[in-house]
Amino acid sequence: MDIIDHTTLAGLAGSGMVSSARVVGQADGWRILVTHGKSEQALSDLPGGRVRIFPKLDTLAAYLKDIGIVHFDVDAVNFGPAMIADTMRPDLPPATKDSHSTAYVEWLKAEVQEAIDDTSPSVLHDEAMRQIRAAVKLS
Q: Which of 69, 71, 83, 137 has the most CB atoms in a 10 Å sphere around its CB?
């Protein structure tokens, strides 16, 4: 199967060169097939040219919309949502998943410690909620 990387796909989509996009379900998620000219290619932004798999259709749809593809066909014949065991990207190597988890835990620990060490005056819950509601109304 021919592949296309994110940069190339985004460029083709931005210039209106993608004639069609098809989302194909499989046991571990969803893949994207795009047609431009006479070529159909699968999205791959991974080392070694492996096809990118999206575990969630809404994430895939948001990705396509962000690069300018707002219409696509969906083929769910072989989709097996019960078979998806991990909510993280199943196409990433385990070391990558672990490094993201480790980085997040370290970041979270630092944020909690910063809050514990903060000596500024406390804000009562009701006052904090009032400020948040006011900020939301402004945006």
A: 69
How far is the C-alpha of 87 from the C-alpha of 101, rounded, in Å?
A: 13
Question: CA–CA separation, 137 vs 139, rounded Å?
Answer: 6
Q: What is the pTM (predicted TM-score) of this model?
A: 0.58
CA distance 79 to 41: 19
At residue 56, does pLDDT exceed 60?
A: yes
Quote the crossing angle between the two packed helices 57-67 and 6-14, to the nearest 10°: 60
- For strand 73-75 and strand 39-43, is the pairing parallel, antiparallel, or unpaired? unpaired
Say if CB 30 and CB 58 are below 8 A apart.
no
Residue holding tokens 């969630």?
56
Six token digits for residue 69: 């593809």
Give kind and range of the element (H or E) at residue 132. helix 125-138
* pLDDT tens for each residue of 73-128: 999 998 876 655 555 565 566 655 566 678 888 888 888 998 888 888 888 999 98
